[in-house]
Amino acid sequence: MSASERIEMSGHIIDSGALMKLMDTIMDLGGDFEIQEQHYGRRKEEPSYVRLEVRAPTGKVLEQILLSCQSLGANLSEATDVHTVPAPRDGALPDGFYSTTNLRTEVRINGRWIGAQDQEMDLALVVDPEREAARCTPMADVREGDAVVVGHHGLRVTPLERAREREVFSFMRSEVSSERPKQLAIAEIAETMRQIRQRRGKILFVVGPAIIHTGAGPYLEELIRSGYVQVLFGGNAIATHDVESALYGTSLGVDLGTGMTVEGGHANHMRALNTIRQAGSIAAAVEQGILSRGVMYECVRHGVEMVLAGSIRDDGPMPEVVTDVIEAQRLMRRCVQSGVEMAIMISTMLHSIATGNLLPATVKTVVVDINPATVTKLADRGSFQVAGLVSDAELFLSSLAQALTAR
User: Fold this and answer.
1) Cut 0.90: pTM above it
2) Lower CB density within 10 Å: C or N end of the chain?
């Protein structure tokens, strides 16, 4: 049995390509549409508006189309209050629950549009009707009886607007290529970092062990000392090889000064782990004078919030590594929600994807990796705001440090 609904979209939907993507989405999912009303802005500051009737062969197909359209910023024309169903048990959601995007979302409660708190993708929306509040909530944190949003009624999603002026970030988002000019993009990243720090916003770095392997550690240390790193995410490997480098001058047993393998150096990371575990923690090793340089040292000295998330392949691990992945996720989420305005992810696919899932679309996000697929994966998974650079970690960090100290 066929079904239909009217949806509308407004903003700079023509030059951003949003309207064309909306139409493609409807047809790709098995529906069709008819444009019922349209107004196009004649000047760049004027928004455009379009209302469409969307038709689908079944109600189930229409539901999928509408949910996909909402993630693009198209909402139902007829506003009704949001629909909720009580959670059946702790850590479980009712059938038909609404899965959030990282775009700004509003919920209609008692006839009023209320902004959802803690915006993040792939969560549930839990409503408190009495307080007229809505919060994006991880599935594991939902409690039995919570009012969970179902369906697509009473929801309004605001898409990211493309910059109206020529902006490096918009070009970086448009295409991932190793052949695009990097210095202009790095200069723009540096200027954005300066602006964020001037208003006391926080910058998050998500880093992998390639930072140490490539010899880029000293540049990251410089950024920490200069006040451009407030939060750092990583795993056991970045901490272990950074400490190995500080204590033995090697990373994975390779001398960072000569590039030559050191005899017996394959065990240096285990010795580094043991040294820190004997001291009790990385912070204790710094306090005791055992650790006197490196990324971890600078993080401790300058009060950088660190979350080191563990994995099954870890040696040791370092005492600071959080081995409960749900707890690590909660700690990362708490850091993100404490004022992070920009995230820079360098040479770590898994940690980049994990962090990207936690970030609202308002957080400027830069992904740097020698593998273009890393950047593409984040964008494909719904991190609409990601700007990508295909670059070696050392080249990027050295250029960034230079750009930040150029004036």
Assistant:
1) no
2) N
